[in-house]
Task: structure prediction
Amino acid sequence: VTETEGAAPEAVRFQAEPRPRLQPPPAAAVESRGATVRARLFDRVPLPAVEYYTFDGQKKGLADFVALSGAQAVLVVVQGSWCPICKKEMTALAGRADDLRKAGLRILALAVDAAKPGAARDDVEAARGFVNELKWPFDAGLAYEGTLRALAGVNARALYPERDLALPSAWLIDAAGRIAVIYSGPVESEHLLADLRGLNATPSPDWAFPFPGRHAQPLFRLTAAGI
Result:
């Protein structure tokens, strides 16, 4: 571009869709990862067009699952059969199934075993065997690359630019179909139950930012002159 010569070209901002890395890290790397990121969103993210497969091969829409669940909230968990932390997390959630149901929660666990090029029947059977072994008391299915790309996009828009999609990861969806809490790492049942309290009320700073102190809004009056 040369100054004063001709019209300025139109600037078009390009935003690539995040592509999560699907290769699982070795078990030692998974075990040594840091603490879980638990982010309550004040500006909740509308549920994008996310699809998944049932174990019998039917493609389903996550929005339909949420709408037809009849629950106060839905937790979507992404996990892999090879991931020891995933097994520990899902075992703990299964052990609190009654408490979670009483709180109005329904859970959908999506396996990433077949979310890779050249996935075979053995990958599907590994995922199916994993949930059967755990006697998983909630819903389960299969994620594919499009599922993970859409969910990674939620994280990128709400929290930070493209990063690896950790295993396990989870998203808590409110009754209005909005993503309200993002978990990167294993979800603890006590944190989940705490997040469910007040989830479907009007989002407030007190719910989204659990920090000590007081809000400064009364100190800054937004009058017409101030604006």
The chain has a mean pLDDT of 82. The radius of gyration is 20 Å.
